Sequence to fold (256 residues):
Amino acid sequence: MKRPLFAVLSAIVLIAMLLGACAPAATTAPAAKTKVRVATDATYPPFESVDDQTKQLVGFDIDLMNAVAQKANFDVEFININFDALLAGMGTCQFDLGISATTITEDRKKTMLFSDGYINAGQIVSVQKSNTTINSKDDLKGKKIGVQISTTGAIEAAKIQGATVKTYDTVDLAFLDLANGQVDATIVDSPTTYNYVAKMSDKIKTVGDVFTDEQYGVIGCKTKADLIAQVNTALAALKSEGYLTTLTDKWLKTAK
Fold:
């Protein structure tokens, strides 16, 4: 006997509902993270350098930027470039951000943005181990001073009466010339100076005290105010969580 049409249609609807319930739920693909181009000069240990074995970028700044990116939910593409070109490129927005032991200054603020400061790293003088005539910055008049180009160390050296300032593309060359007697002294950020003195303690030493008060900041293209705001939010969270102390313990505990 034929079933009534209504009963047949009800059965079809019920089967369709059951099949639908058994089908796997549709998944939504996660949104792709924004890629942020971050410039750095990886010749400035312990903040940024290239690991000899892995050939990967390492250092305080590299760890910090990766942590900031994780907090702010973006991906980092590091661009390794010398410091002078880094500053020039940031001024013309060739990069989104930069992290490279960069001191916040009023002059630099004219062409780029800065995050909040994340570490204090003033300048200090270093000389040959055997030197007994230079005991502080005040003894550098008329001396030959090695500095990295476009750094605040170069700015401070230029203020010294009668000094001959020799600039280098990378800071390691300044310390090598100091060790070999090609310059009388260097003026370099204190954490990096301590790093080199620890490695070359038989040849060079620091003299005097740290004589400037400088904050490093993440730098940004002038059009990236929103991105710098994200960086500041991430930095504040990392500070409150104690992550900057962790980085200091990892990278900056060197002989002074």
Summary: The helical segments are 5-22, 60-72, 83-91, 152-158, 171-179, 190-199, 225-240, 243-251.
